[in-house]
Amino acid sequence: MLQPALGTARTPPGEGEAALAVAGAAFRRRIAMFFLTFALTLNFVDRQIVNILAEPIREELQLADWQIGLMSGLAFALLYSVAGIPLARWADRGNRPKIMAFSVLVWSGFTIACSLARSFPQLLVGRVGVGIGEAGLTPAANSLIVDYYPPERRASALSLYYLGVPLGTLAGMALGGLVADAYGWRTAFLVAGIPGVVLAPFLLLVLREPRKAHAALLRTAPPGALAAVKTLWAVRTYRLIVIATALQAAVGYGFGPFIASFFIRNHGPEIVAMATQAGMGVSGFLGLTLGLSTGLAGAAGVWLGGLLADRFGRSDVRAYVTIPAFASLAALPCYAVIFSIDSGALALAGLALPNMLGAMWMGPVHSTQQSVSPPEIRGGATALFLLVLNLVGVGLGPLFVGTASDAISWQFDQDSGRSLRAALILTSLVAPFSAFLFWRARSSIGRDMTRWKAVNPV
């Protein structure tokens, strides 16, 4: 008689098929996470590329700092936030892969349109269009990932997705600077927009909508928009982390459009010398160095924040807000030193630490805001979260920095470098308020996380 193959003699009937099914689901999740992370990476390439292009755009179109802040911040964030509400409602009811594919096409098209702008209003319209398109990705992606993974793995899974933020920032800054040096800022927008047009069909082919497999969600219709907002805002943990993250974002995103300008205005000769030594132009050199600092250090922060939150959160769920609190507070003295020292090289190198600390909130906070939200409005929970974060952080942060720089320049004899330095230091003082609110959420997170049962149809 033939003997069973090695390793199969003791396998009960059906167990092998079950193991294969589990392995297949895990493989599908990995593929899905790759494409979702790549989509968010392109999202931030198109969103952040304007930061490294701010100075050449300002010079060609003769713009003031407040206009740079409006274009890169409020104009983008306002429509991003407003469009996010109906798109999130769509995500709570509709096919999320289709929504994401459509969104990628829209924002990529408007990024390409920015390359054709010949005036500030035209560029403003292009950035508004990018904001509308990008609003459809993350609410759908967040709720899809939460459907894919159990609660104890969500922070790590969402951290993997949010690696797209620093990676996209790295690619956007480096690509934008290098292409702008070689071919101009218009070509940089064109090159940034094309990959999204290619990606969109792959999202339709690869991603699965698991909602049909979960009968409870089908039987529970999402509440109206106003009722959903009231439900979410009544959850204390959700409310606190939304406000805390918005303040945190006001610092990080407020700095974004002005970091390259800060180094050009305050450390110009030193930056030119370093760029020349590297055989590069100033925009390319700063794009590459700032991109590497933001991208690599930010990626480390995103990964570390999710890893620590899931590891310590198994025994104490307060870790999901404690880690962002400490990280936010620790970044403050780093910024104060970086914006004050006389060495441009040390300031460039020193940015890595606050960039890492500033990214550690992403996995823990997004995991928390999804876990404390009812399953049928998780897309809406992300949209409301992003509405506040983007209006305060992305919208008002850059506008505040730019307006403050213009307003106090008279105190520095119209020296735009010194006034921008002061505006950046002033903005960094918001960080302790963010840390305080994260810390306050420790008292309610345990209760709020037990309200909803896990939903994992995949």
From TrEMBL:
- Quote the PROSITE patterns the UniProt record gives: MFS
Residue spans crossing the bilayer: 31-54, 66-87, 99-118, 124-146, 158-179, 185-207, 240-264, 284-307, 319-338, 344-362, 383-401, 421-439
- This protein's record includes keyword Endoplasmic reticulum: no
Protein localization: Membrane
User: Where in this chain does the entry annotate a coiled-coil region?
Assistant: none
Q: Which organism is it from?
A: Sphingopyxis italica
List the GO cellular component terms: membrane
Keywords, comma-separated and alphabetical: Membrane, Transmembrane, Transmembrane helix, Transport
Q: Provide the protein name.
A: MFS family permease
The UniProt entry lists membrane topology as: Multi-pass membrane protein
Among the Pfam families in the record, one is MFS_1
For this chain, one GO molecular function annotation is:
transmembrane transporter activity
Domain of life assignment: Bacteria
Q: Which residues form the Major facilitator superfamily (MFS) profile domain?
A: 32-442
Q: Which InterPro entries match?
A: MFS, MFS_dom, MFS_spinster-like, MFS_trans_sf
Q: Which CDD domains match?
A: MFS_spinster_like
